[in-house]
Amino acid sequence: METFLRPQDSTEGSFGFIKQLLTAITRQLVLLCLVFGLTAPGLTPARAQSLPAQTLRKQAYLSIQVADIDQAMARLNDLLQAGGGKITSYSMISQGSRSGRLTILAPSGSFEDLLTQISALGEQVLAQHASTEDLGPLLNDKYTARRSLENQRAHLIDIQKSAQTEAEGARLVEELDGVQSKLEALDSEISRLERSLVTGTIYLELWYFPPTATPTPTATPEPTGTPTPWDPRRTLDDVLNVSREAAICYLPGLLCLSPFALAVIISQALHRKRSQALS
């Protein structure tokens, strides 16, 4: 494996020559790691690309009403400890009613059984739905893309072995760095998808509604004393009293208006006689 070094100008001296030599040695060490499959900083080793036996990603949403949230949480922790699940997030809200919102990771193998056991914690299931997604086709695409990047990296390594100039070698190393960055990002995405197949996610809501107080009916008080019998003479007296009071109220007004009313009547009578005389 030859390293091509350019002649140094006499003004640079020995320091420039040593710097150039160290750069070339470092590049060759990286190339050796790639050629022999060694793990070097920034390099991603080859990984198995076989499709998992279980390719379904499972998710569920469950909302239940409980008699006591603290007791329900204690029973839930026991179920998760026995079934291999765990709580990844939890929040409590108290506003009129108490509610708890949880995110639970459950093993895919016991996902349905654990979901059934959790729903039994409540007095009533308010809402529930589950979904599955087959990630097999997506993972196959990711594996195919990774194999393509690995072939591209191997091709660049073969080309670099026969590089004729230092500039050409530097360009190939830069291309290898770009391919390596893509491989690392793709491996991270593949790992995330594979982890989602191992455990399913349950989004759980616990609701507690305080009992409402029943209003006490108010008793209607019973009448006291002896009822007064109906007297016709007393009723007539009441009518006469009302009539007298109305006359007293309206009589002054009628007396004030009577001269005007009399003048109007006389005027109309004279007008009719004049009309008859002319006719």
What are the defining features of this structure?
6 helices, 279 residues, alpha+beta, five-stranded mixed β-sheet
Topology:
Layout: H1 13-35, E1 56-65, H2 69-83, E2 86-95, E3 97-107, H3 111-119, E4 124-134, H4 136-161, H5 166-198, E5 199-208, H6 232-278
Parallel strand pairs: 1-5
Antiparallel strand pairs: 1-4, 2-3, 3-5
Description of the molecule:
Helix content is 55%, strand content 19%. The chain has 279 residues and is an alpha+beta fold. The chain has a five-stranded mixed sheet with strand order 2-3-5-1-4. Helix 4 packs antiparallel against helix 5 (166-198). The longest helix is centred in the last third of the chain and has 47 residues, at 232-278. It is elongated and about 145 Å long. The chain starts with 12 loop residues before the first helix and ends with a helix.
